Amino acid sequence: MEYWQLQDAKNRFSEIVNKALQDGPQVVTRRGKKTVVIMSVEQYQSLVRPKIDIVDFFQESPLRGGDLDLTRKKDSAREVVI
């Protein structure tokens, strides 16, 4: 990763975006501290994408096969006043 001071990052933003697309994440510092990372959308999405899809998540649940009653009551519906 390359590091950029905030002032340089502001002046050379297009260059930083191009480097992020070609070479990977670019770190911007402010007052000597790492502050933000500029990266491609593809890299960002790979970081935030769930590692497992929803179907597999529920299939691997420790509650799977448990005794959970999901039947609805046959009572009459409540009266709605309009």
Class from secondary-structure proportions: alpha+beta
Radius of gyration: 25 Å
Q: Give the number of helices.
A: 4
Q: For the largest beta sheet, what order do the strands appear in spatially?
A: 1-2-3
CATH architecture of the domain at 2-50, by name, is 3-Layer(aba) Sandwich
Distance between the ends: 63 Å
What is the typical, i.e. mean, pLDDT?
91
Q: Please outline the major beta sheet.
A: 3 strands, mixed
Strand content: 15-25%
Shape: elongated
Helical percent range?
A: 25-40%
User: Which regions have little confidence, pLDDT < 50, spanning 5+ residues?
Assistant: none
CATH topology of the domain at 2-50: YefM-like fold
Count the beta strands: 3
The CATH superfamily of the domain at 2-50 appears as YefM-like domain
CATH class of the domain at 2-50: Alpha Beta
Brief sketch in words of this structure:
The chain is an alpha+beta fold.
What's the SSE blueprint?
Elements: E1 2-5, H1 6-11, H2 13-23, E2 26-30, E3 33-38, H3 41-48, H4 54-59
Parallel strand pairs: 1-2
Antiparallel strand pairs: 2-3
What does this structure look like?
This protein has a domain at 2-50: YefM-like fold. The chain contains four helices and three strands, in the order E-H-H-E-E-H-H. Strand 2 (26-30) and strand 3 (33-38) form a beta hairpin. It is α+β, with helices and mostly antiparallel strands and 82 residues long. The chain starts with a strand and ends in a 23-residue tail after the last helix. The protein has a three-stranded mixed β-sheet with strand order 1-2-3. The model has no long low-confidence stretch (mean pLDDT 91). It has helices at residues 6-11, 13-23, 41-48, 54-59; strands spanning 2-5, 26-30, 33-38. The radius of gyration is 25 Å and the shape is elongated.
